[in-house]
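Hey, can you fold this one?
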Amino acid sequence: MCGRLTLRTPTSALTAFFSGLQFSQRAFRFNICPTQPVLCVRQEKSSQLEAVDLRWGLIPSWTKVTKVGMGLINARSETAATKPSFRNALQHRRCLIIADGFYEWKKNGATKQPFYICRKDQRPFCLAGLWDSWQDENQPTQAPLETCTVLTTSANKFMAPIHDRMPVFLEPVQFENWLDTSNQLSESIQPMLSPLQTDSLQAYPVSTLVNRPGNDSEECIAHSNEPIQQNLF
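Sure. Predicted structure:
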């Protein structure tokens, strides 16, 4: 599972990371939660890349109930090609979800200890994502709601002691193939959805401040050894 993200990388560094793609100025975020905007990169019909904010929590275009978006914050990469909520997006609407850290909760008996996971070099990274566009049939003149989900895979050796799942990380050499939705061959897409193979990540315990969506400050990522917790949401 991946249920919280951070993005505290300066806008200028994001532009450099994506070789000139322009990003709007944005505030540092230390606790990005489901239903909130996340920064994504996707391919336009013209094949140009664009940076967009999408609401986290996929709402399939065919659904009648918007609250389903809260439940679709993650998609299992192993089954996304066959699940009605994700299979069309996997073929036609893939995106990169930009972050520089995420949180995971390790079960410890009846409690859960939050951990913050980021790159050792503190650089941003891209997670494999899917997006969709939903139109309220009762509000046909209203702009469609664009949402996204994070693809997950089995945990690698680094993540396994914390959780049995982890987000799918994509390397820069994979970006073009992932975003090119003219490429719908499963044999081209599926190998990209494997656990991260490098030792580039670090993890450390943080306080339960991150459990509350209203808390969005640098304190959320501070090291902590306090005893933990009750409920995530």
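The longest strand covers residues 125-134. Let me know if you want another pass with a different chain boundary.
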